[in-house]
Design brief:
The protein is of the alpha/beta class. Helices cover 22% and strands 27% of the residues. It is built from nine helices and 26 strands. It has a six-stranded antiparallel sheet with strand order 11-20-21-22-19-25, sandwiched between helices. A five-stranded parallel sheet has the order 14-3-2-18-26, with helices on one face. The protein has a four-stranded mixed sheet with strand order 1-17-16-15. The protein binds flavin-adenine dinucleotide (FAD).
Length: 504
């Protein structure tokens, strides 16, 4: 391979961050503010981050964004044949498209797996992550409740919202059944904003762009990391190899440490590609767990028709049931649909902010299993010349049962308010539709069950962090971005401390 060395942008004092999605952006911000020299490698180009979002008092009134695409060509699906893989190779990654819901994981979400055995036990608890939720939330300007519920702790919200009227009464009935109903915590809440990106919060636009003048930060766009170079002599990763999308040339960026945040599947692929004689199964893959335990959110879509209209501003979040009422690692939450089209529809029907027909997304869980995995497929090639991907994942039967039970409990709550609910639509989306893949490079106290320690660091390679949701030991029913950002920041702070102390 003909390598261009890049000592002028990276050196033995540089931390290379790979990817500018929310996890990579959180890590970059933390490191730059901690005085660490950072080189951010982003496979997408600035042209790819095109978009415009205008919001008026929290309602999106204009949204121009690129179409989101599924990845194909280099992906072989060997589990559920309907499996899809969405990605956006662009600054900000999937935050060019996301819906901006940011619930915290709860205390119980970190404890649930213990009930299923050692393999499902997180190496940290809610209390370890709480200060990092506190750190990340102000960046997101969240609107939501400032009242915590057992299954959904309150975050640091900028705009306090509360449910009123019928939803309050439904909340009281839910509480008696061990659930809670609160407003969905959303990014940028009720503010009026104009953003040059496909959503109100694109992690590149909101976090990285304001840092661009910093002497501690260099960014390379259109540069896709393809290999982390392990030195058997130094017992650490000494450089990142990346391909320039425009020229096809391979560049070598020397480094002191690496934060991998290319999205769950791509981060795992990168580590699998980074094989060496010390790690023939992929970087740090001493026990064959790299790529395994892949999980996603089983997703149900529900539309309910009622005799009386139901408010949707703020949108309601019906939490999961308590641990005592569920089998280990199976739960589901319900998020009510809202937004400008819903509002327009309600105005047309003559009762603004309320509708007789309302929709919900139900996010469920699946117990992670080593049988669900990401692997390399040497038979196909990705655009950057690296091997293609195998995606092997199917939802267990218990996932559907948890979703239908959450649906039935929600319908019963609406019925309790004499709304006479009728299910007009109920569909389960194909695997990958939630776009919340996680777990394929998971944290665990033991390398036998996970690649990363409690600080998101590879057990076997002490100068590499994996910062995105690949790190999740188990998947709770909550949307992943906030927790990925909190884990990324926590791991990056420890990395910065260790670099300063000379421990790496
Ligand atoms: C329509 C939609 C709605 C969603 N709604 C929500 C929601 O409400 N709440 C929520 O929490 N989540 C939501 N999500 C999911 C959320 O967007 C993702 O979980 C999140 O963006 C993942 O962050 P990430 O940093 O791990 O990866 P990504 O966002 O995928 O970012 C990865 C970055 O790495 C870059 N990259 C990839 N490979 C390489 C490489 N080899 N070298 C260099 N750079 C590389 C990519 O270009 C990209 O910038 C939604 C997603 C979609 C599509």
């Amino acid at each position: 391979m003909n390598l261009h060395s890049e000592p002028e942008v990276a050196g033995s004092d540089t931390v290379v961050v790979i990817g500018s999605g929310p996890a990579g952006a959180a890590a970059t911000l933390l490191l730059v503010k901690a005085g660490v020299k950072v080189l951010l490698l982003e496979a997408g180009t600035t042209a790819a981050a095109f978009g415009l979002t205008a919001r008026l008092a929290g309602l999106t009134v204009v949204r121009l964004h690129r179409q989101m695409r599924t990845r194909s060509g280099d992906v072989k699906v060997t589990g559920d044949p309907a499996t899809v893989l969405y990605e956006d190779i662009a600054p900000g990654g999937l935050t060019n498209h996301w819906s901006c819901a940011v619930p915290r994981f709860s205390h119980d979400d970190f404890l649930d797996g213990r009930r299923a055995g050692e393999a499902f036990t997180w190496p940290l608890q809610y209390e370890d992550l709480a200060p990092w939720y506190d750190w990340a939330e102000p960046l997101l300007c969240i609107s939501g409740s400032n009242q915590g519920a057992p299954q959904l702790p309150a975050g640091k919200v900028s705009d306090v919202r509360a449910l009123t009227g019928v939803w309050q009464r439904i909340g009281a009935a839910a509480q008696a059944r061990g659930q809670a109903v609160v407003p969905v915590p959303y990014v940028y809440g009720i503010r009026t904003t104009l953003t040059f990106s496909g959503t109100v919060f694109n992690s590149f636009v909101r976090i990285i762009k304001p840092l661009l003048g910093s002497p501690n930060l260099a960014v390379r766009f259109g540069t896709r990391a393809t290999h982390l170079e392990w030195s058997g002599r130094e017992k650490r990763v000494v450089a990142v190899i990346a391909r320039d999308a425009a020229t096809g040339a391979d560049h070598r960026f020397p480094c002191r440490a690496v934060v991998v945040a290319a999205g769950s599947v791509n981060s795992t692929k990168l580590l699998l590609q980074s094989a060496s004689s010390d790690f023939p199964g992929g970087l740090g893959n001493t026990e064959g767990v790299l790529g395994r335990y892949l999980h996603d959110h089983p997703l149900g879509k529900l539309i309910v028709e009622m005799d009386r209209p139901l408010p949707f501003q703020p949108a309601a979040y019906v939490t999961r049931q308590s641990l005592a009422d569920t089998q280990p690692l199976y739960a589901a939450s319900c998020l009510q649909w809202s937004g400008v089209y819903t509002l327009a529809r309600s105005i047309l029907h003559g009762h603004p902010g309320r509708l007789r027909s309302t929709g919900f997304s139900l996010f469920g869980t699946m117990a992670p299993s080593p049988q669900n995995f990401v692997a390399l497929d040497p038979a196909t090639k990705s655009a950057d010349g690296t091997p293609g991907l195998v995606l092997n994942i199917s939802y267990p039967q218990e996932s559907e049962a948890a979703l239908t039970s959450a649906r039935d409990r929600l319908v019963a709550l609406l019925d309790g308010e004499k709304l006479k609910p009728r299910v007009a639509l109920w569909v389960l989306d194909p695997v990958g539709s939630a776009i919340h893949y996680a777990g394929s490079c998971r944290m665990h106290a033991s390398p036998k069950f996970g690649m990363l320690d409690a600080w998101s660091r590879l057990h076997a390679v002490r100068n590499v962090i994996v910062a995105d949701s690949a790190a999740f030991t188990t998947g709770s029913e909550k949307n992943p971005v906030l927790t990925a950002m909190a884990l990324a920041a926590r791991g990056s702070q420890k990395l910065a401390d260790d670099l300063r102390a000379g421990n790496i």
